[in-house]
Amino acid sequence: MDETQSLRTPLMSLADLIAPAASPRETPEAPALVSLRGVDKVFANGVTALAGVELDVREGEFVSLLGPSGCGKSTILRLLSGLTSPTRGAIAWRGRRPELGFVFQEPTLTPWSTVFANVWLPLRLAGVSRAQAAPRVEEALERVGLSGFANAFPRELSGGMKMRVSIARALVTRPAVLLMDEPFAALDEITRTKLNDDLVALKCGLGATVVFVTHSVYESVYLSTRIVVMAARPGRAVAEIAVDAPLPRNEEFRLSAAYAEKCRQTSLALCAAMDLPPPGARARSGEAST
Ligand code: ADP
To answer: I need a labelling partner for 48 at 20 to 30 A (CA). Which of 174, 197, 242, 254 fits?
Structure first.
């Protein structure tokens, strides 16, 4: 059975596959690094982006937020980063909020600055001189495989390399938590696959906690230790899927039956969250996939 086929063939009921989103009482592991409790976010225009979100992120996890557009994934990242506040409910960090790194969907590099200057930026804004910052900029560039590109300009780089610079910029402050908002969505599949591989290695090397927003079932399963599936209108967490294959992962995991099975489970959970029939049912009825 190939991977596509396995995704199309529901063998178990949805109830067998989908665990409800964790309640605060169902977290037997380490205490949460950060917890969202009963979080609502209503924007000034009246849009309820999030309603009653319960989410724990534990130290060292790679948590993906997976769901349709508009279900509030980016809003959760913005809440975690302190860029916006909840309308109701609480976000509690264990102790002081740690250093955070934020990677956006677009690399958002300044085109007139070198790679070095782009990566230095967060330290420069914190008052760190060029000379003091140099070892940390070089370390960050090395971590993303761009040693030797410090003097290049963004126009000289491919899309994947620009995203690597953007990740280096997030790493230069040595964050304990990396917040990543669909960083690879605009890249071609080959580049995306390579960056997925490198992100797994990077996460393992850093030991950082990662909260990652994606639309991609395949990407979320490959990268994550846990996937939180979200539904829209209003945005909320509706299911969790643990991916217990050990890190680091590689091509062997991507080609494994365990990966295909986890993709199938995740795909079904996403369909349920979107009120869609399971993929197999749609294929049989001749509907186009979404
Ligand atoms: P996602 O990341 O899952 O696509 P978002 O978190 O970006 O979803 O948005 C959730 C909902 O909140 C969407 O309906 C979006 O239009 C709305 N929204 C996001 N930011 C704002 C804002 N600043 N003002 C008003 N509505 C917003």
So the answer is: 242
235 pocket-lining for ligand 1 (C-beta < 6 Å): yes
Q: How many whole angstroms from 75 Cα to the centroid of ligand 1?
A: 6
On the question of pLDDT at 272 being above 60, the answer is yes
- Tell me the CA–centroid distance for residue 251 and ligand 1, in Å: 35
CB distance 106 to 183 below 8 Å: no
pLDDT one-digit tens code per residue, 90-142: 999 999 999 999 999 999 999 999 999 999 999 999 999 999 999 999 999 99
Question: What's the pLDDT score for residue 282?
Answer: 60
Examine the domain organization and report whether 142 and 167 are in the same domain.
yes
Q: Given 123, 144, 174, which residue is the final one in a domain?
A: 174
pLDDT tens digits, one per residue of 44-82: 999 999 999 999 999 999 999 999 999 999 999 999 999
Co-location of 72 and 180 in the same domain: yes
Centroid of ligand 1 to alpha carbon of 221 (angstroms): 24
Q: How far apart are CA 120 and CA 278, in angstroms?
A: 47
Give the pLDDT of residue 112: 97
Q: How many domains does the chain have?
A: 2
Is the pTM value of this prediction over 0.85? yes
87 and 11 in a common domain: yes
Same domain membership, residue 122 and residue 91: no
> In terms of domains, do 168 and 248 share one?
no
